[in-house]
Task: structure prediction
Amino acid sequence: MAKVSIERLKKTFGSAVAVSDFSLDIADGELVAFLGPSGCGKTTTLRMIAGFIEPTAGTIRIGDDDVTHMPVHKRNTGMVFQRYALFPHMTVSQNVMFGLEMHKVEAAERDKRMRAALDMVRMSQFHDRYPRQLSGGQQQRVAIARALAIQPRVFLLDEPLSNLDAKLRLEVREEIRDLQRNLGLTTIFVTHDQEEALAIADRMAIMYDGKVQQIGSPEALYERPTNLFVADFLGKMNFFEGSIMEAGKFRTKNQRDIAIVGADRDTKKVGVRPERVTLSAEPQGPNALAGVIDTAIYLGSIIDVRIRLDSGESVSAQISNRGGEHIQHLSDGARMHACFDPADCVLFSE
Amino acid sequence: MQTTARADARIASSAAPRRKSRAPWATWLHRIFVVLMYLFMLSPLIFVVWLSFFKDAILYFPPSGYTLSWYHKAVTDSAFVNGFITSLQVAIIASLCGVTLGVAASLGIIRYAFKGSNVINTLLLSPLLVPGIVAGVAIYLAYLQLENILDMDVVGTYGGLVLAHICLTIPWTVRLVSASMHGLDPSIVEAARNLGASPRTAFWRITLPMLRPAIVAASLFSFVVSFENLELSLSLVGPGRTTLPIAIMQYLEFNLDPTIAAVSAIQILLLGIVMLVTDRFVKLSQVV
Result:
């Protein structure tokens, strides 16, 4: 395995900019997820790393080698595709063998590595099947074995779980994570599913409109989003527009004061996550905004409550379901105070 | 493990939309219609084969008896035998060349969707649209021009005939192979490249084998189309180089005995065998 470093990568198709100014260093053995809505440039970036797309500008290094202009078949990356992309006219073992043949591995060694790779994904007993005889999850496991058998320097996954059903998705995800940890694979995982990215990644790069919006650990991105896109894309957030009055005090457009931590003059919006908002009949703490419950939606483990504040704004709160009295008073039309800690407020300057 | 696979297959088949149940009389009506359709389509074949056994030299119904002598005459008549050999040679060479060129053309059109690739695609399919007799005359006139320029014989030569037949076979390959290529997931070839295959290796080891059913079907159709072609060949054959369909037509000008039926029956049998053998290797119904 090897580290990967990407410097000021750029790709334009005619006048359309697909990726611009993408820089990222991935450590040896690290799993980085590229997360973003479709069309954000995440797949384009992955395909540039694999070599399927020629970058317009910038450099890509794998280990110490500059691979920016190296043809695909010399890069030694192992890629897993969304639609499995197994060779339909070859058996499972022939599929895995193909890469080993291409890498001119000796015959005896080849066989051993093919078996080891299939064992790793628990597909050995299917070695003489054809892809069409396997389920989606099994096909994707074979594709993973095929990509890893060549001992690639980087493991690339392009939405590998999107075609699987929910339960299987979870299972294969765990499997990919375990393999990645145990083998110490430098891995890039492209997905549009935030839960997937949060669960699996050491670090994630959130992309939008061809640009990286923020890079960091799942926790850092969720707790401390640096811009509105990241805050809104990852989970949900309530926003209040307004401006800073003095250190620790933010006044909304509707003349409502909110206690915050910090005093950045540029602050134009304050955000708070719905699960950090508590509801109580009596005001509690420095931020207690009075209002009436608009809707309370029972979702099993949580109750999703929407409160219309007296000042006009609307606030979402997610109350965890502890049963009994705790949730009984959460009915439409009830008067409540939406309370939250100043430390839970995130400040945005846009 | 066998059981899991079977279970999977069962799930897959039950997922397919079920046929709606129908009233019994509707089912019978449907069956009768299907049988009649098949009879309608097959009746020329059935009659040709039946006629070939009639004893009378002049077709007469009902026959006064049955005989195999027309078959003997068919396989000993030098016009038919030579025609058969010429047709076979032309068809084999034309379909080999046509399929090779057709595969190359479809690859170019589909893989590199270049400017004007649609025009070329339509152009390559055009021999299907032009009436054979018109195309034959057009090619004949073109060959005459070519003879003037090259100062050598083209009309009536073997090469001239094969070349015309290649034009005839290309649309079939282009149609079948490009349809098959449209259905291929491009990431399969990318996977091969990613695993270390050069573009050329990926083509020979992955792309071509995946196109195999389409190529086999294209070869078969090319062969049949060339073998039974009459209109195009009519103006292009030279003395002593008649194809089988032309030999049949020439015979018909002066005779009306069941020899023709015997020749046709043999031809039907041979093409039928070729199709059945092909179907053993490639399920034609899946490609066409």
